[in-house]
Amino acid sequence: KQEVTQIPAALSVPEGENLVLNCSFTDSAIYNLQWFRQDPGKGLTSLLLIQSSQREQTSGRLNASLDKSSGRSTLYIAASQPGDSATYLCAVSYQTGANNLFFGTGTRLTVIP
Amino acid sequence: EAQVTQNPRYLITVTGKKLTVTCSQNMNHEYMSWYRQDPGLGLRQIYYSMNVEVTDKGDVPEGYKVSRKEKRNFPLILESPSPNQTSLYFCASSSFVGQGSNQPQHFGDGTRLSIL
Questions:
Q1: Cβ separation of B94 and A99 shorter than 8 Å?
Q2: Closest CA relative to residue A43, chosen from B26, B5, B25, B84
Q3: Closest by Cβ to A42, choosing from B35, B96, B109
Q4: pLDDT by residue (tens digit) across A71-92?
Q5: Are residues B43 and A91, on separate chains, in Cβ contact within 8 Å?
Q6: CB of A79 within 8 A of CB of A61?
Q7: How far lies B10's CA from each of A61, B66, B78, B86, in Å?
């Protein structure tokens, strides 16, 4: 069974700090990995998608890396802002199953002004 | 505006009373899916559909039904809801080509169901 783990479950940082969120997965035969943001009362917003053949993707202050061999991905957030406060979820898609996503339980980020 | 729309957003109901949660997308996506989100368990897939009239079970399909008669709609049906189906439900869609898809999934805002 594919398992996706995110550590830590919660993280508080002062505004302006750079931070790293971690995601690990047990089955390295992934098709792609996505990072999502979830705000209270809202759905999930896709932040970055890394294909299995890629090592990283960047969007603004966000950078996601992928190391398939070790089963790990990181989401780097530069110069954090209070508006970055949300729960961040990673999800993997496997080659054997359509576009089905397997999610981690998320990291709740609080950026303190 | 491209979006996935779920209705209702909130529902409190009683055990055994059939209910349907609707999901509609306006992006002409082939792939649609339902997830439930529970504390400590994350999001788990209930059912998915790769195109009209094509549906399949996800990880937690028991107690649910779906249908895909039109490309844009993918309703989730609880024939006889029970308290253990109290959860936050999300519908998602994406374009899909071949064995997998490198297109991001778009999610609705969620439906919070409480079954008493």
A1: yes
A2: B5
A3: B109
A4: 999 999 999 999 999 999 999 9
A5: yes
A6: yes
A7: 34, 19, 15, 11
CA distance A26 to A35: 17
The one-digit pLDDT tens for each residue of chain B (116 residues) are: 889 999 999 999 999 999 999 999 999 999 999 999 998 888 999 999 988 999 999 999 999 999 999 999 999 999 999 999 999 999 999 887 555 556 788 999 999 999 99
Residue A39's φ and ψ, nearest 5 degrees, are -100, 150
Contact call for A93 and B40, based on CB within 8 A = no
Q: How far is A13 from chain B (nearest CA, A)?
A: 23
List Cα–Cα distances, B45 to A1, A20, B34, in angstroms: 14, 27, 6
Those residues whose C-beta lies under 8 Å from the C-beta of residue A70, and which sit 6 or more positions away, are none
Whole-Å CA distances, A23 to A19, A66, A71, B30 = 14, 9, 8, 28
Q: Does B30 touch chain A (CB under 8 A)?
A: no
